[in-house]
Design a protein that fits this description.
Elements (H helix, E strand, L loop, with lengths): L1 H12 L10 H10 L10 H10 L1 H9 L6 E2 L1 H18 L9 H29 L2 E10 L5 E9 L13 H4 L4 H10 L1
Antiparallel strand pairs: 1-2, 2-3
Helix pairs in contact: 3-6, 4-6, 5-6
Organism: Hipposideros armiger (Great Himalayan leaf-nosed bat)
Protein name: Izumo sperm-egg fusion protein 4 isoform X5
InterPro entries: IZUMO, Izumo_fusion
Length: 186
């Protein structure tokens, strides 16, 4: 029960990943303020405005990750630049027929969610390609703070014989303290 409460609170605090990017506020402020110039159908304006306003919160709702939503700055920049490029193209001087603009916003949103999911998972996989305990810097998508992800890599084919404490048969009972001690000895 406590776990469900904790997960519920985490979801309530969650904001999304893209909002952690340094240009997010400026870009999305522009997008929200210029949405009325994109469609000549009055019904598109509130729908599009709502999509843009709820972008961050909806992102976290759609991520569905079993690992913490933490992304490297490099990957966040890649995702943000892809999203901003697509949005900027959408905002280039045209007016669209009814329904087109909100549909394009939804497609961009879905693409952004997929890019973020892939970036988070790729970072974790890259981390696990190392041998032993590895740490990399990330940004928490929940509160935009700098964080560190620690993982244990299993790519130990080239492992020195002196690291026998990290070989698979001994990993079952390995504690963080034992691993640290093993690494410090060698």
């Amino acid at each position: 029960m406590a776990l469900l409460l904790c997960l519920g609170l985490t979801a309530a605090l969650a904001r999304g990943c893209l909002h952690c990017h340094r240009n997010f506020s400026e870009k999305f402020s522009f997008y929200r303020h210029h949405v009325n110039l994109k469609s000549w159908w009055v019904g598109d304006i509130p729908v599009s405005g709502s999509l843009l306003t709820d972008w961050s919160q909806d992102t976290m709702k759609e991520l569905h990750l079993a690992i913490p939503a933490e992304i490297t700055r490099e990957k966040l920049d890649q995702v943000a630049n892809a999203v901003y490029q697509k949005m900027d193209q959408l905002y280039q001087g045209k007016m669209y027929f009814p329904g087109y603009f909100p549909n394009e916003l939804r497609a961009t949103f879905r693409e952004q969610v997929q890019l973020i999911q892939n970036a988070i998972i790729e970072s974790r996989i890259d981390c696990q390609r190392h041998c032993g305990i590895f740490q990399y810097e990330t940004i928490s998508c929940i509160n935009c703070t700098d964080s560190h992800v620690v993982c244990f890599g299993y790519n130990c084919d080239l492992i020195s014989p002196s690291f026998t404490c990290l070989e698979p048969p001994l990993l079952a009972n390995l504690t963080l303290e034992d691993a640290s001690e093993c690494l410090m000895q060698h």
